[in-house]
Structure to design on (299 residues):
């Protein structure tokens, strides 16, 4: 690992770095890169840190300096809210066709009786669910708290197009177990009804059963929330964040709710059609000059 600075860490900080690397190694073995927030929640869950903003900031400072000093691998962590965006390019038309072939995907849900989408409360958790969603070819959407009226209206129009094709729609919602996170599920259902979209909204995380099973670290209810009184009456004075669930658990929750809805015979038909079409693109790329010459003779 590259060191950009020289720094002598105190014993307490070295202990945090060792524990952070222990967590990172566990998750790298499962194919995950973690955010700082997820590492912090693992510290809390394992009893290595209190669950406070001060503790979070202190851990963040130590990890940042450890990365600069070459003690934590830069590739082990990611910031899912900031990334470079731009336009891609190809060197030749043949390469463009080859790239199109490698990226080509036919909608595997086009002939399924049910469409499924995963809606998650936080944009920072998209990287956790993207792998399993890509594997299952399920679209996913980061709400960023309460979704805007515009984004929900757009979603409703999309759902109505699926309905018009004769498909049902299932929205799998994942959110914090706190006053707002619980209410967001209700808000989605209400808006879809108002906008005339026929769908089922199924909350798959977090639930009290999952809190009891997986034991994520709690935090106190924010009494400043206008919904805190009703939440306290129903669930008590503690809240739990979705970030605290292990990535593998979130992935399995999605898989457990998607796979039973798939018509495997129809899926096989679509897979076979996609492979035939990719072969056609591959042939076109490999024989591009011949194909162009033939087209020129025709026209």
């Amino acid at each position: 690992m590259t060191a950009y600075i020289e720094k002598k860490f105190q014993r307490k900080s070295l202990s945090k770095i060792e524990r952070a690397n222990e967590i990172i190694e566990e998750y790298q073995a499962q194919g995950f890169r973690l955010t700082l927030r997820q590492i912090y929640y693992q510290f809390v869950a394992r009893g290595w840190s209190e669950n406070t903003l001060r503790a979070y900031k202190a851990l963040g400072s130590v990890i940042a300096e450890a990365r600069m000093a070459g003690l934590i691998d830069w590739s082990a962590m990611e910031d899912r809210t900031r990334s470079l965006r731009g336009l891609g390019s190809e060197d030749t038309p043949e390469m463009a066709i080859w790239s199109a072939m490698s990226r080509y995907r036919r909608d595997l849900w086009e002939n399924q009786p049910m469409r499924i989408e995963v809606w998650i409360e936080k944009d920072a958790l998209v990287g956790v669910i993207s792998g399993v969603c890509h594997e299952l070819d399920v679209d996913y959407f980061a709400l960023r708290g309460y979704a805007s009226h515009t984004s929900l209206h757009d979603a409703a129009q999309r759902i109505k197009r699926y309905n018009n094709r004769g498909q049902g729609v299932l929205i799998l919602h994942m959110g914090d177990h706190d006053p707002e996170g619980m209410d967001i599920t209700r808000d989605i259902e209400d808006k879809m009804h108002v906008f005339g979209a026929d769908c089922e909204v199924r909350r798959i995380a977090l639930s009290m059963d999952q809190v009891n099973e997986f034991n994520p670290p709690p935090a106190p209810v924010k009494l400043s929330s206008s919904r805190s009184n009703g939440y306290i009456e129903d669930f008590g004075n503690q809240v739990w964040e979705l970030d605290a669930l292990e990535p593998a658990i979130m992935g399995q929750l999605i898989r457990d709710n998607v796979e039973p809805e798939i018509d495997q015979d129809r899926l096989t038909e679509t897979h076979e059609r996609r492979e035939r079409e990719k072969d056609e693109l591959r042939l076109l790329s490999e024989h591009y000059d011949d194909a162009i010459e033939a087209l020129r003779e025709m026209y």
Observations:
- The chain is about 55% helix and 10% strand.
- Residues 89-106+263-299 form one domain.
